Amino acid sequence: MPLGKRVMAQLRAYHVHVKARDERKLDAESLKDRAAVLAYLREVPGLSWDLPWNFPRHYLRSALVGRTSVEVINAYMGHWETGSEPWWNGSCLDPVAYAHEARAAIDAIFPESDWPVLAGFR
Questions:
Q1: Which pairs from 73-78 meet CB under 8 Å and 24+ separation?
Q2: What is the value of pTM for the model shown?
Q3: How far are the Cα atoms of 16, 38, 44, 79 from residue 28, in angstroms, in the given order?
Q4: Is the dihedral of CA 76, 115, 67, 3 positive or negative?
Q5: Number of domains in the chain
Q6: Can you tell me the distance from the alpha carbon of 50 to that of 26, in angstroms, rounded to the nearest whole number?
Q7: Whole-angstrom Cα distance, residue 27 to residue 69?
Q8: Spatial CB neighbours of 10, under 8 Å, sequence gap ≥ 6
Q9: Is the dihedral of CA 108, 109, 110, 114 positive or negative?
Q10: What is the DSSP letter of 117?
Q11: What pLDDT, in 10s, does the model give residues 47-91?
């Protein structure tokens, strides 16, 4: 799946976080006090708990509209009907063009929304 630069930066930060967590032996057992964890997360700027569970998919699809073709959006989101699958041998979707268009659209979304890369444990 094509990912933009900011998404890749967030994944790298998450990788560092997981390695640091493992080194500190922080796991589900050490985070039994859920209330304390949620209280900490509520302090992170920009987080809101009033969003529907599928908000990221709605946000992403809405943000992609107008930045790339409907075919690329549907392939990226996994939205297609039988007979219009983007990856079967009769599809006209060029995988190289798809990856380029999807990556460019994702890169355009995140700087506009000004979502910072959040670091975890280091």
A1: 75/102, 76/1, 76/2, 76/102
A2: 0.65
A3: 18, 14, 20, 34
A4: negative
A5: 1
A6: 28
A7: 42
A8: 117, 118
A9: positive
A10: P
A11: 666 667 777 888 889 999 999 999 999 999 998 888 888 988 888
Residues in the chain: 122
In a domain, 119, yes or no: no
In a domain, 37, yes or no: yes
Can you read off the two tokens belonging to residue 93? 């979707």
Q: Is residue 74 part of a domain?
A: yes
pLDDT band with cut points at 50, 70 and 90 for residue 38: low
Residue range(s) defining the domain that contains residue 97: 5-113
Residue 99 pLDDT > 80: yes
Residue 10 has pLDDT above 70, yes or no: yes
